[in-house]
Design goal:
Radius of gyration: 17 Å
Strand order of the largest sheet: 7-4-3-8-9-10
Shape: globular
Number of strands: 10
Largest sheet: 6 strands, parallel
Helix content: 25-40%
Structural class: alpha/beta
């Protein structure tokens, strides 16, 4: 059986292609100036720095024709799917639904809600629009994973401690074997990212595994032999 060198121990890969990539929220609103991340006072350059690495990971899955799912955090134009507890939280200069330099913040179909051009999905690749932090809440992700007989999930994206970690924990509770790619995820806060990596792989991998992009690609190549 192929495996990915990982922490806390090697991540076993299935003999059949039942592994999928999930990239969380690599969208303009979080990675570019003028978006929601910027409005919250964050340094978006930290997130932009991982784009070349995420692209390498994405291309590795494409080369092996493995399933790819990307997500965007998106709300309906009427905000009916955005609870007041989320809409009113914080003290940002722009709130969800407000008009900004890239259109209304976190609204489905607006320019800022699009996945960045470098990682734009190809035909046949699935984009999940999610109204919450986790990719399973109020979406059809679990149905699609079951339809494709997916058992193993490789995760990357932003931000590590919020939407990525929430999705990984949701997947763990549903029985998926999850690996978080260390250099294909990022946070506005370095300490938060490091803490998340340590939490998910603690206690023998209580939530899952972590590994680098190079390690993941090497494991996928071995699986294909």
């Amino acid at each position: 059986m192929a495996a990915i060198a990982a922490q806390p121990y090697d991540y076993p890969l299935p003999t059949t292609p039942t592994v999928a990539l999930i990239l969380i929220d690599m969208q303009r609103d979080f990675l570019e100036p003028g978006g929601f991340g910027d409005a919250l006072g964050n340094d978006v350059a930290r997130l932009q720095a991982i784009v070349p690495t995420v692209k390498r990971l994405l291309e590795a899955f494409r080369q092996q024709s493995l399933p790819i799912f990307q997500t965007t955090e998106s709300h309906r134009p009427d905000l009916a799917d955005c609870p007041p507890s989320k809409l009113l939280r914080g003290n940002a200069s722009l709130k969800i639904g407000d008009p900004g330099p890239m259109g209304r913040i976190l609204i489905e179909g607006e320019p800022g809600n699009a996945i960045i051009a470098e990682l734009a999905p190809l035909p046949g690749e699935t984009v999940i629009t999610k109204p919450g932090k986790g990719a399973f809440y109020n979406t059809n992700l679990e149905f699609l994973l079951k339809t494709h007989d997916i058992t193993h999930l490789i995760l990357g994206g932003v931000t590590t401690e919020v939407c990525v970690q929430t999705t990984m924990r949701e997947a763990n509770d549903r029985g998926y074997e999850c690996l978080l790619v260390e250099d294909a995820t990022e946070s506005y806060f370095p300490d938060f990212k490091q803490a998340t990596l340590e939490m998910v792989r603690a206690q023998g991998g209580i939530v899952g595994w972590t590994a680098t992009t190079d390690q993941v690609i090497a494991g996928l190549q071995a699986m294909a032999v």
